[in-house]
Amino acid sequence: MFSDAYIIMKKELKRLFTDRRTVFFMVVLPLVMLPVMYIVMGKISKSRSADIRSYHGTVFVAPEMQKDSPIYEEFISIIDEQMNVTINEIPEAYIPTAKDLITEKEAQLLITFPDNMDVAYEGIKPFDVHIYYNAASDYSGYFYRRTHDAIRSLADTLIILRLESLDIPTEILTPVTANETISYEEINLAKKGSEVGKTFGVLLPFIIILYLFVSSMQVGIDTVSGEKERGTLAILLVNQVDRASIILGKLLAVVCAAFASAISSVVGLMIAGRFFLKDLFRSSASMSDFILGANQIVQLIILLIPIAILLVSLVLICATYARNSKEAAGLVMPLYMVVLILSIGTSSMGETVPSWMYFTPFINTVVGLKAVFMKASTWGNVLIAGVSSLVFAGLLIYFMIKMFKSEKILFRI
Fold it and tell me: Domains of the chain by range and CATH?
């Protein structure tokens, strides 16, 4: 049986990897597309941030009568120093017009001060400053956040002035500090490379599962449904070849093809990581710190081989049942959406996950891969995830062999 399966697998692999279009879309495209995509995204994000920071905004301040207040003068000086804006002092009657301009994105902020703020300050009572902005505008949102920083700076200044007027040393405000006398390298106790691994732990599991499934769809549907349409499957079945050998050979060939695409995507993402870590995630971590040891590589293999077999088995079951490639694609698409949602949802989870997730197909692989990249995996959890996926894959393969042995199901007659 295995010799026949090996022959069929070689035939399928030769057919796949001698097709230039297939090799391009499965291997070359992920290797090139991912670095380009993330580098472009990082550059766009960086350029957009620089554009927002350099934008010259328009800020309205009301009411005009407060401009003689020392508190108001201190606030305006902070705004002038910290923000690239033109300040327009307006009377109270012009406030509705200023709000309309902000709504239409022709101005960015309106700041109003209460009439009694000097009295409140002298009476040691807080006063409330109102800041109006447009949440749908990036520029307005940026100046809104910067104005909140300016308000905090104003509050610190007023507290210091109040203490000085009472002859109280300003050091009373800082009874304790954190990490002022020690370097960041000394306080960061994360394992070397785990910061980069945390970023990859969010991105890579999802991308690996995605490319494994997409490649399985592309190749698996053609391997079974495509051969039905071309009539070559019927010729193969006429020969005295055990149908389990046919299934096993085709499954292994599709697994190899899917792995080639997934590995290509991972390599592409690693290349992109040299650029997008700093540009897209504003991370100070370096790719040179991220090195997987022998244990992590073995754990990756234990996780990836079973999930690849499981994904290919799902695709081949749909392709076996379908009359043609179009119908097979329609049957696979809902499964693809389910796997996609599970992968995305699981990738964004925290570091501590319930133990039942390691027994759940797809979820266990994403959780396991994330832990491996973060260098927080344990052999027990990895083995549970791998064996669990392999058990489900075995059940699907058994069911698929039963389908292949039924002419009514295989050819829908």
Answer: 2-44+194-410 (no CATH), 52-174 (3.40.1710.10)
